[in-house]
Amino acid sequence: MPSDTTEPRQRLFFALWPDNAVRRTLDEAGESLLGKRIKRVPAANLHLTLAFAGSVTASVRHCLESAAGAIQVAPFDLTLDHCGHWQRPRIAWMGPVHTPPGLWSLVGSLRTVFETCGLHVETRPYQPHVTLARKVSRLTNDTPITPVSWSIRSFSLVESVTDPRGVRYQRLVSWALEG
């Protein structure tokens, strides 16, 4: 969608947003895996990204919201039972060993939403994960993690806001999964 480059923009992405119990469990898993000395992602920012839209105008946001509201995917359960580390961009993460079909379906539907709204569709394979910490050189803890069970009943459009205290994420709209 063509747009005026002077139009205000928001940095947006679609995500699975954990409830307080899952968020607490993820935060505890991060502490267990990384210890207290490594600065972890703040508990309030823990989420699982589904699709990253980037910096978009109000008209593109409206298109994203309209198209996402039409997605039909049944609720599903997700188990985060694997942790890992990516050298670049130096991220420690937790994700599923087996990705449920419902998650694949939701991500595929969001890629269609991006095409509908004129956004770039990611070509790399999707790898679901929750970022636990950034700027991590390596994982040294071989302690097995306790799996985190997460009942997925909705997904959200989230804004990434940078202020003097750092980055925070704000849920803008959420949609119930039905199907």
Write a structural description.
The protein is α+β, with helices and mostly antiparallel strands and 179 residues long. It has one domain (9-176): Cyclic Phosphodiesterase, Chain: A. Helices cover 23% and strands 36% of the residues. The protein has helices spanning 20-34, 58-68, 101-116; strands at 9-16, 48-57, 76-80, 82-86, 91-95, 130-134, 148-152, 154-163, 166-176. The strands form three sheets. The protein has a four-stranded antiparallel β-sheet with strand order 2-1-8-9, covered by helices on one side. Strands 4-5-6 form a three-stranded antiparallel β-sheet, with helices on one face. It has a two-stranded antiparallel sheet with strand order 3-7. Helix 2 packs across helix 3 (101-116). The model has no long low-confidence stretch (mean pLDDT 92).
CATH superfamily grouping: Cyclic phosphodiesterase
Topology order in helix (H) and strand (E) letters:
EHEHEEEHEEEE
Number of helices: 3
| Main sheet specs | 4 strands, antiparallel
In CATH, the architecture is Alpha-Beta Complex
Instruction: Please report the first level of CATH classification, the CATH class.
Output: Alpha Beta
The total beta strand count reads 9
Secondary-structure class:
alpha+beta
Q: Largest sheet, order of strands side by side?
A: 2-1-8-9
The percent range for strand residues is: 35-45%
End-to-end distance: 30 Å
Averaging pLDDT over every residue, what do you get? 92
Count of spatially separate domains: 1
Question: What does the overall shape look like?
Answer: globular
CATH fold call: Cyclic Phosphodiesterase, Chain: A
